[in-house]
Amino acid sequence: MSPDLSERMLGVSIDDPGDRQPSTPEEDEPEELERFVYVAIGEHRLAFPVDDVKTITDPPESADITTVPRAPPAVDGLVDIRGEITALVDPRVHFPADEPPAAKGRLLVFDRPTDQQSAAITVDEVLGVQTVPETDVHGPEDVEDPTVAGGAINHPLIVALVEQERQAERSTRGTTTRESRFGGTNQPDESLSLPTEEADDDVVSDEFVLEEETEEEPESEQPPEIIVEATGLVDVERLLLASGHKS
Global pTM? Predict the structure, then answer.
């Protein structure tokens, strides 16, 4: 927690100096954060480091894709994206899905070095961008149960699991709140400066009807149900190498 916050927000009484506890160097150190783009490919939910994504745009029309003779199965062809020849990689070759591709998906264009050919993948949906603590990113050595998230950690292109908590959806009188799919303790992050689709409204309000005030016994508050989700983090370099993409 930031040391610049007020003492009241830190939960320390400002009336009695004796309540204050000396901070330790560990408490003063800010927690490292990482940002990821979450996508859906069929029934798979995957994460990519934000630094590896250059832009998000609409996929090209079939007529705009130039097929490459004897290209690897994962390379659908080449496409011109803003004047840059880009290899179009099909991630379903590495992440087979029972669900058919979305009628209108999204294109993730990777941020590649200037001396390497541009590459992109088509996904069914971009779910969002989220910032998580570095401690919530778990490598294979940290995962005690390899079957978590459908055994994603055992996939050769998955390098870690990103763990997140979110509250289960619940309804309250007069309003229905849809929690972020990547909710939990983190606030929704600002979107990338990329052309992404606008999200739905967060709150849908029903019509209120005024009623006479009556004395009612307070309802006991139920603790919110917390759901822990684990998402496979894809190594972009491994993905492109396995796809036969040439630098």
Answer: 0.67
